Amino acid sequence: RIVKEQSNYLEFFFRSPFDGLLTINTVYYPGWTVSVDGRKVPITYGGSGFIEIPIQKGERRVQAVFRETPFRLISDGITLLSFLLIASLIFFSKRLSITRSRKSAL
Questions:
Q1: pLDDT tens digits, one per residue of 13-71
Q2: Which pTM value belongs to this model?
Q3: β-strands 58-66, 20-27 pairing
Q4: How many CB atoms lie within 10 A of CB 83?
Q5: Which of 20, 68, 75, 91 has a 20 to 30 Å separation from 13 between CA atoms?
Q6: Integer Cα distance of 14 and 60 in angstroms
Q7: Do residues 20 and 55 make contact, with C-beta atoms less than 8 angstroms apart?
């Protein structure tokens, strides 16, 4: 039974009659963490690329959460700074061009 499903968060209850490996239909990417009954579990992503976790028999509460990795946060910051730099260069070059054309008209 799915409790909550978002692009970066999934929570559901799962009942299994035996111990095994549960495949979550979400492609693994660094930043995903999974907990079963509140305890973090190791993630594997075999040949399918989907998240796979060990599961014990019985009813279990599974939570999968995606958080940005530090490398990704730094990359996002560099991208933002680059965009702001390019935008300011375009703005100031146009402004300088207008100022020069006004001075030459005098």
A1: 999 999 999 999 999 989 999 999 999 999 998 788 999 999 999 999 999 999 888 88
A2: 0.68
A3: unpaired
A4: 10
A5: 68
A6: 5
A7: yes
